[in-house]
TrEMBL record:
This is Lectin-like protein BA14k. It is found in: Membrane. Coiled coil: none annotated. The chain crosses the membrane at residues 31-53. Has immunoglobulin-binding and hemagglutination properties, and can bind to mannose. Essential for virulence. May be involved in LPS biosynthesis or polysaccharide transport. Keywords: Cell membrane, Lectin, Membrane, Signal, Transmembrane, Transmembrane helix. It comes from the Bacteria.
Length: 113
């Protein structure tokens, strides 16, 4: 990539210099110092144009893709089923299977869901 950029810059400088030099030589062939000014101006213009075209271009990175999180599935069995009795008695030590309530930390009895 770097070799290609350098070659392109040199080629642009030579083309611009040749165009200005040819035009200057045919118009002012009798005055030799203007030929040198044309060559120098052509090379300078080509170098400026080539360096401007060879500058790296920066692009913003694509936005990050964050997929939607998977839904959280919480298994709670239906009340008064054998699985519900088993779930509540394992989860709450104070679960009363006759009423379906347990004693919460707040001091109130809460229905097991």
């Amino acid at each position: 990539m770097l070799k290609k950029v350098a070659t392109t810059t040199v080629a642009l400088a030579l083309v611009a210099g040749a165009a200005l030099t040819t035009q200057t030589q045919s118009a002012n062939a009798a005055q030799g110092w203007q030929v040198g000014v044309g060559i120098a101006g052509g090379l300078a213009a080509g170098a400026i144009l080539g360096s401007a075209l060879s500058q790296p271009r920066y692009y913003a990175p694509p936005p990050a893709y964050y997929p939607a999180p998977a839904p959280v599935v919480v298994y709670r069995p239906a009340p008064w089923t054998p699985a519900w009795y088993d779930y509540c008695s394992r989860k709450y030590r104070s679960f009363n299977p006759n009423t379906g309530y347990f004693l919460a930390y707040s001091g109130q009895y809460t229905f097991c869901r």
